[in-house]
Amino acid sequence: MGRPRKLIDNTLGHRTLKEIEVRKDTEQRMTELKSIDTEPPEHLDDIAQAEYRRIVPLLQELPIAALDYAQVSSYVSSIQTGCKRLRR
Fold first, then answer.
1. C-beta separation of 56 from 39 below 8 A
2. Which of 4, 52, 68, 76 is the most exposed place for a label (fewest CB within 10 A)?
3. What are the φ and ψ backbone dihedral angles of 5, each rounded to 5 degrees?
């Protein structure tokens, strides 16, 4: 897995004006994506829904969007499975 991209304002090094323009355009398009839904999916049980509600406000501070919904749903489902196994 590669490193996360830095914002153009936080990068060091020499960039051409064209490279800077392309990077700024990409950063702008990232902010235009639909944000992740604050309500948890209904197929999750109570534990997973509680975890979803806990992490979504934190995730909304980051430049993520509804495209990341599957990963978030997978994460909270894993938490749900782990909690059920620990209760046994």
1. no
2. 4
3. -75, 140
Per residue in 42-86, pLDDT (tens digit) is 888 898 899 989 988 888 777 676 667 788 888 888 988 888 888
What is the rounded CA–CA span in Å between residue 16 and residue 22? 10
0.70 surpassed by pTM: no
Taken as a whole, the chain contains a residue count of: 88
Token pair recorded at residue 24? 């700024």
Please report the DSSP string for 27-52 in residue order.
Answer: HHHHHTSPPPPSSPPTTS-HHHHHHH
| Helices and strands: H and E segment counts in the chain | 3, 0
Closest residue by Cα to residue 66 from 22, 30, 26, 27: 30
